Amino acid sequence: MTKFRLSMVVFALSAGCSSPEASGGGSPTRGPLPETGEVGQVTQRSQLADSTVFNIVDLGTGAWLNMMSDQEAVTLQVFYIGDKTTASGHFPSTAVLVDTISLDPFQAKGHSLNLSHAAFAGGYGSLLVDAIGVSPTTVFQTYLTSQPGNVTQDVGGSVYQGSVFRIPVFRGSTNVVLAVTNQSDFATDVVFTQSEGPGYEGIQSLVPLSTYKFDSTLCNFTWPPVSAARPAYLQVAASQPGATLAVSGYVVYSNAKWRVAPVPVHGALF
Predict the structure, then answer these.
(1) What is the pLDDT of residue 74?
(2) Residues 76, 27 within the same domain
(3) How far apart are the C-alpha atoms of 218 and 225, rounded to whole Å?
(4) With CB atoms 3.0 to 4.6 Å apart as the test, which of 11, 53, 76, 141 could cross-link to 187 if both were Cys?
(5) Which residues contact 251 (CB under 8 A, 6 or more apart)?
(6) How far apart (Å, rounded) are the C-alpha atoms in residues 133 and 135?
């Protein structure tokens, strides 16, 4: 698995719609549609990794990580990354080392997230959990638990790496909010489209390890009512070949947040 470099080149960019607490105005820029056809090749996907990037968005009152080693002892470093991209532009931020955790073989330990940290301003941001060393067997598994809702989800490994994601949206849903982080070592455009309706937004040049907060209401997406014949889904796609995203968030239904941790698919609907 690719090791992530924390010092990144800042690219020129323009961005689409984003959250009001982060954007400060600006006009959305429509990026190009993603290329159709195969966007990656899978030999085997794993929940174990020697380095993993994931993001959080509007978690609420508390959250913590559980990291579990495999057959070898491993020392992990936890970094908070506050690099953001909004409709107003790119706001770079240096990754901050906040914790170092040593695990014996087949051991589990936790890290409580400091949601008031500057890296999570606006209610969202990303994290890097990185194993010290280069051995292919010094791998680990990562779970994120959040409140309210007491939701635990796996966030590590190649299972959650990809270029195209689809998020199911129930009939009667009113909003979809996502955090999208570029895990690649190059910038990529990201396109948001919906299966039932004309909704389309694009963000150009999302730089490495920068996170964008997508809010479907701010982007004027509408979703099927309860009486609709079928539900819908939101597609998130990186347009540059080989680009890798991390995606998480929630669907608002009946005034409640329904957490989603999508896994990638191959090809594109549109």
Answers:
(1) 93
(2) no
(3) 18
(4) 11
(5) 167, 168, 169, 170, 173, 175, 176, 257, 258, 260
(6) 6
Mean of pLDDT values over 71-78: 93
End residue of a domain, out of 144, 159, 174: 159
Note the pTM of the prediction, 2 decimals.
0.81
Contacts of 133 (CB under 8 A, 6+ apart): 74, 75
- Are 193 and 103 within one domain? no
pLDDT beyond 90 at 33: no
The pLDDT of residue 60: 80
Over the stretch 158-210, which tens digit does the pLDDT of each residue have?
Answer: 667 789 999 999 999 999 999 999 999 999 999 999 998 888 999 999 999 99
Is residue 46 domain-resident?
no
* Residues 28 and 59 placed together within one structural domain of the fold: no
Same-domain status, 86 and 32 = no
Summary mean pLDDT of the chain: 83
Under 8 Å between Cβ of 58 and 115 = no
- What domain range is 118 assigned to? 51-159
Q: Of the candidates 267, 268, 244, which has an alpha carbon nearest to the alpha carbon of residue 195?
A: 268
We report the CATH number of the domain holding residue 82 as 2.60.290
List helix spans (H) across 1-40: 20-23
Place of tokens 């190649």: 158
- The answer to whether residues 233 and 167 touch, using CB atoms and an 8 Å cutoff, is yes
Same domain, 248 and 177: yes
- CA 83 – CA 68 distance, rounded (Å): 27
Residues 6+ apart with CB under 8 A from 250: 57, 58, 176, 177, 257, 258, 259, 260
* 58/144 same-domain check: yes
CA pair distance 221, 142, nearest whole angstrom: 33
Q: Are residues 104 and 55 in the same domain?
A: yes
